[in-house]
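Render this sequence as a predicted structure.
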Amino acid sequence: PFNSHLMSYSIPPYFQFSPVTVAIYLTIWIKIYTPRREREREHSERELMECEQRKIKDFMIPWLAHGHISPFLELAMTLSSRNFMVYLCSTAVNLSCIKRRLTEKAANSIQLVELHVPTLPGLPPNCHTTKNLPPHLMPTLKKAFDWSSHNFSKMLKTLKPDILLYATIHTWAPNIASKNDIPAVVFIYISATMTS
């Protein structure tokens, strides 16, 4: 369940949600539980209407595998039609593939954000993805990705999203979000039997 002190929420693994259900769920969750400074002050009717029309900013960071990116992208496209501004974060090599999959309509509400991952020995920038990556380089990719947490923190401070959606592999993501007063939700997109 929701914990206001940790500002994180984990969807129980025995539930399986479609992207539309997740979009509706997130909209309700944000409107009810996320503290909004705009609502803590008195507003004129016009200011309140402007506040309600403001897009909810959602920052997404999937793991660097296309099988992990696809569910995030599908959810991003669903949210983009529901008054969300989505920042989808990945490495340059992955973003080039994601860009080709975006519809013109979705591109207005989905901004691709590059995560700068350090280049380690044997892992050039074109290998900052699991696609065609030799198995022996997988631990190096994970290490490089973990070392990019500082760059990730800078992005959250700059973009100031209303919510963060992250993959379970990013154990550092909710802690960084919490330090920036951003609610974090782990997006579990794999089979319920694998997470139970």
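Summary. The radius of gyration is 17 Å. The chain has ten helices and six strands.
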